[in-house]
């Protein structure tokens, strides 16, 4: 079973400093048919205006992944971490027993575009943890680049859940096959471009829920940047 979540169907928050598109229920946006997908709880596509951002706020018992694809995002947290996340960087934070953090556009001139992803943890109450890493774009051209996994395979970042997150930049007229293990499900989030996955065509911002399937045949109709989640 494959089901498309079209970009225009997402919830949206519009403020003077933020435009945020919500694939799943988030904040003041609630859709009973789209609250989560397995352990995948949040995919927010955020556009943050220059010098603006999210003031210090708390989290607990959530795996939070941030991927910047345009601009730069400044991060500070209660563990003493302070950094600037740029394109090709991936940040993961295990909120565990509790953490506070802030996120601001590092630029005074240009907006920052990012994806923020929340995943339910496997174990609750763990000691909070933060890590980031740069993943070169050339390593995901026409292949799946593993960003996050529960066992740090292929240099990926550790996550407290049985989830693997891949990213790919599939050039026009290229193909990737992805085999799905029995009992697993997949979510594909298209950042930009156009893909055909099995019989479905996707445009930028679309998501695709996949259950009870064994193979995905992914073809690019244009240069396409996408994430693939292998989930319970």
Automatic annotation (TrEMBL):
<dbReference type="GO" id="GO:0046872">
    <property type="term" value="F:metal ion binding"/>
</dbReference>
<dbReference type="InterPro" id="IPR012093">
    <property type="entry name" value="Pirin"/>
</dbReference>
<feature type="binding site">
    <location>
        <position position="57"/>
    </location>
    <ligand>
        <name>Fe cation</name>
    </ligand>
</feature>
<dbReference type="InterPro" id="IPR041602">
    <property type="entry name" value="Quercetinase_C"/>
</dbReference>
<dbReference type="InterPro" id="IPR014710">
    <property type="entry name" value="RmlC-like_jellyroll"/>
</dbReference>
<comment type="similarity">
    <text>Belongs to the pirin family.</text>
</comment>
<dbReference type="InterPro" id="IPR011051">
    <property type="entry name" value="RmlC_Cupin_sf"/>
</dbReference>
<feature type="binding site">
    <location>
        <position position="101"/>
    </location>
    <ligand>
        <name>Fe cation</name>
    </ligand>
</feature>
<dbReference type="Pfam" id="PF17954">
    <property type="entry name" value="Pirin_C_2"/>
</dbReference>
<dbReference type="Pfam" id="PF02678">
    <property type="entry name" value="Pirin"/>
</dbReference>
<dbReference type="InterPro" id="IPR003829">
    <property type="entry name" value="Pirin_N_dom"/>
</dbReference>
<feature type="binding site">
    <location>
        <position position="59"/>
    </location>
    <ligand>
        <name>Fe cation</name>
    </ligand>
</feature>
<keyword id="KW-0479">Metal-binding</keyword>
<keyword id="KW-0408">Iron</keyword>
<feature type="binding site">
    <location>
        <position position="103"/>
    </location>
    <ligand>
        <name>Fe cation</name>
    </ligand>
</feature>
<protein>
    <submittedName>
        <fullName>Pirin family protein</fullName>
    </submittedName>
</protein>
<feature type="domain" description="Quercetin 2,3-dioxygenase C-terminal cupin">
    <location>
        <begin position="146"/>
        <end position="231"/>
    </location>
</feature>
<feature type="domain" description="Pirin N-terminal">
    <location>
        <begin position="10"/>
        <end position="119"/>
    </location>
</feature>
């Amino acid at each position: 079973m494959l089901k498309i979540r079209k970009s225009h169907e997402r919830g949206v928050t519009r403020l003077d400093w933020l435009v945020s598109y919500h694939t799943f229920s988030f904040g003041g946006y609630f859709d009973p048919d789209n609250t989560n997908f397995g352990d995948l709880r949040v995919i927010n596509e955020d556009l943050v205006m220059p010098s603006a951002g999210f003031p210090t706020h708390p989290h607990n018992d959530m795996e939070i992944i941030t991927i910047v694809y345009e601009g730069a995002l400044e991060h500070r947290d209660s563990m003493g971490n302070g950094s600037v996340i740029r394109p090709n960087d991936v940040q993961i934070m295990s909120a565990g027993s509790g953490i506070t953090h802030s996120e601001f556009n590092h630029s005074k001139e240009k907006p920052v575009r990012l994806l923020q992803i929340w995943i339910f943890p496997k174990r609750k109450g763990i000691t909070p943890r933060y890590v980031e890493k740069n993943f070169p774009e050339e390593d995901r051209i026409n292949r799946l680049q593993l960003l996050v996994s529960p066992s740090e395979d292929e240099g990926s970042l550790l996550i407290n859940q049985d989830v693997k997150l891949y990213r790919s930049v599939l050039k026009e007229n290229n193909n990737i096959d992805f085999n799905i293990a029995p009992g697993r499900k997949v979510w594909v989030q298209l950042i930009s471009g156009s893909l055909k996955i099995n019989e479905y065509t996707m445009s930028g911002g679309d998501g695709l829920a996949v259950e009870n399937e064994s193979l995905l045949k992914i073809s690019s109709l244009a240069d396409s940047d996408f994430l693939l989640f292998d989930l319970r």
